Amino acid sequence: MQRQTPAPPAPQHLRAPAPPGSALDALPPESLDALARSLLEPLSRLLRSELRGDRERLGRLRDAL
Q1: Mind giving me the DSSP string for 18-39?
Q2: Quick one: the chain helix, strand, coil %, rounded to 5?
Q3: Taking the mean position of all CA atoms in its chain, how far away is CA 59?
């Protein structure tokens, strides 16, 4: 019988959301909205880069129409 190694812990960004009463609950809605807007561009840039890399690995530089 093979011995299985335990899975590594999940990265911080993949963990479950913070429980109620966390620091995000203390933020006013306007601040939370501003935070979301400020993260939109960097996250979309990272996603586009990841998708481009996947297409390059598959040998398809353009999406099929």
Answers
A1: PPTTSHHHHS-HHHHHHHHHHH
A2: 55, 0, 45
A3: 25
**Spatial separation of the C-alpha atoms in residues 26 and 40, rounded to whole Å:** 21
* Residue-wise pLDDT tens digits, 9-58: 666 656 666 666 667 677 788 888 898 999 999 999 999 999 999 888 88
41 vs 48: CA distance, rounded Å = 11
Q: What is the Cα Rg of the chain in Å?
A: 19
Which residues have CB under 8 Å from 32's CB, separation 6+? 24
**Apex CA 48: angle with CA 64 and CA 59, to 5°?**
45
Whole-prediction pTM: 0.49
